[in-house]
Amino acid sequence: MHWDYILILAILAVVVPWRSLGRIRQLLAGPELASSERVLLYLSTIAFQWTAVAGILWRCMAHHLSWAALGVALPHPMRSLTVAAGLSIILVLNQVYAIRRVATLPYESLGIVPKLAEKLLPRASGEAWLGFLLVLTVALCEEFIYRGFIQALFMVLFRSALAGAIISAVFFASAHLYQGRKGLITTFAVGLIFSAARVWTGSLLPSVVAHFAVDFSVALAALRFFPLRRNSVALYSLHIPERLYLRKGAN
What is the pLDDT of residue 227? Predict the structure, then answer.
């Protein structure tokens, strides 16, 4: 394996989860964020994710890893659109049901992610538009990184679609280490589903669409079911982007 691929994998497997966890602890221990601080976090996360994608894509092109191998293709349009719609509907319904069930729990028992989300959720229309852009960025960039680059890399290395799917799901789950054991298991399962869709369709389109649909619908559902909690659980099931915690965590 090329040295630059190894470096990228080391950053994704070690540095990102480690700094994310440290940043989360700082956010939970600190006071409520001001609007300007949330906006800066959104913007820095968006910039980080696209910079990471640009760097990975640069190295992939240098080693002649094709667009099709990375899943940036649409070899089976109807299959991809059907899988995208099906996955989105199933996962969105599941997440909305989970939010309704969580809404019956006392706030103190909701866990770390809802309490963290309470500090990160938009409070004004300007923040909401940036939040929408952030969700879109996460869907595009994370799917390219995990289902595109990592899955393609290990599919080629081990000559096995199964190996690529499992390893990419492991990396995806490790990026969500801050969610605890239950979150790791859930994220790993979702990663496997997205990886399977990518293998069957030969495209990242289904996982990108489903990723965005789930994240966005969860936030909207929280507006409906948690009006008295300032939408503190709007990101309860969201893959809160780990890069969100890197900027201040490095200070």
Answer: 52
Site of tokens 């409070």: 123
Burial class (CB in 10 A: 0-12, 13-18, 19+), 178: buried
Radius of gyration of the chain (CA): 18
Dihedral sign for Cα 173, 213, 222, 122, please. Answer: positive
Structure tokens at 35: 């609007």
Per-residue pLDDT at 177 exceeds 70? yes
Residue recorded with tokens 């059907």 = 82
Instruction: Please answer whether residues 235 and 220 qualify as being in contact, where contact means their C-beta atoms are separated by less than 8 angstroms.
Output: no
Copy the structure tokens of residue 149.
């680059």
Domain boundaries, the chain: 3-249
Q: Place 137 in a pLDDT band, splitting at 50, 70 and 90.
A: very high
**Listed range (98-107, 172-181, 200-209, 224-233) with the worst mean pLDDT:** 224-233
Residues 9, 94 contacting (CB under 8 angstroms): no
The band of 210, judged by pLDDT with boundaries at 50, 70 and 90, is: very high
Separation in Å, CA 139 to CA 1, 121, 243: 27, 17, 13
pLDDT for the residue 110: 62
Q: Are 22 and 245 in contact (CB under 8 A)?
A: yes
Burial profile 113-149: b = 16 or more Cβ within 10 angstroms, e = fewer: bbbbbbbbbbeeeebeebbeebbbbbbbbbbbbbbbb
Cβ partners under 8 Å of residue 121, min gap 6: 131, 219, 230, 231, 232, 234, 235
Contact 56, 149 (CB under 8 A): yes
Residues contacting residue 215 through CB under 8 Å, at least 6 positions apart? 135, 138, 139, 238, 239
Q: pLDDT at residue 140 above 60?
A: yes
